[in-house]
């Protein structure tokens, strides 16, 4: 079957949130349709009259609950485990006949759902990729040398006999298979929460922005800092940090000479002058956090911020939209806002915000 659809990876268990987000955004973009998914599957398919046009209308950078955005080219159920390559090549030839696929892809990614049911497919995906890659090159479907500027071909195994063919553009997708960056926990990081801020800086800022906005000797505040995972990331990036929390910080941070620990309430404290950065990972209701973050920008206490919104158990897309709209409105200034449920997030989303020039 070669009907196109939008195919997006997400955190297992958050399929309803992604389905609701895609449905609302697609309708607003003039491409109404319907989402198909199963809770726990780790992905959502969105069907509409012109999925390719919808993909262009919904930039990946604007999606919150999607780890990756793909355009599904073909759905191939009932594959014979003895020969999966022949039907894949035949499907690509059929797509070429209707001009629904590029003349050649720059890279091949083999993927599988990041779910309990999908993870056992990792070995199959790895082994099959070694067999499929030369066959695609022989048939001129894949460039002889990986070309990261061209569209990628994704072969997604949903089961041993069921694969999906999809494509993504490097400028409108995650640069990592499954949308999961490979980050390692550092031995001297005070907590695993450090991985959240590291991923946020990689995911929510582009290379140019990181070069301009993350520099040595910048002044930052970490609200709700203890035990210091986010402070550690800021210090590692050369910043001087005011860590605000009644709880204790890791001793290596205090020994760094770049951290000032204030044992006060992060919701009450305010800086004496404008800071380059404010980060916040406090466990509070999302609306309370969004309101306080808006005050920081309204009062010009910081230029950039990264903060988490802990989501409720129900109506999480609705709560996300309400919080982000309220934050932008209450800041009372032009803002650039990006949000994503990161791989290292749990029942939360991470938001990057920066004031823009009027």
Automatic annotation (TrEMBL):
Residue ranges annotated for the RlmM ferredoxin-like domain, each copy included: 4-70
Gene Ontology biological process terms, A to Z: methylation
Alphabetized Gene3D superfamilies for the sequence: 3.30.2300.20, 3.30.70.2810, Vaccinia Virus protein VP39 (3.40.50.150)
Every Ribosomal RNA methyltransferase FtsJ domain range: 191-284
MF (Gene Ontology): methyltransferase activity
Cytoplasm found in the keyword field: yes
Cellular localization per UniProt: Cytoplasm
Cited InterPro entries: RlmM_FDX, RlmM_THUMP-like, RNA_MeTrfase_FtsJ_dom, rRNA_MeTrfase_M, SAM-dependent_MTases_sf
Parts of the chain that traverse the membrane: none
Record-linked NCBIfam families: PRK11760.1
Family under the similarity heading: Belongs to the class I-like SAM-binding methyltransferase superfamily. RNA methyltransferase RlmE family. RlmM subfamily.
Name this polypeptide is given: Ribosomal RNA large subunit methyltransferase M
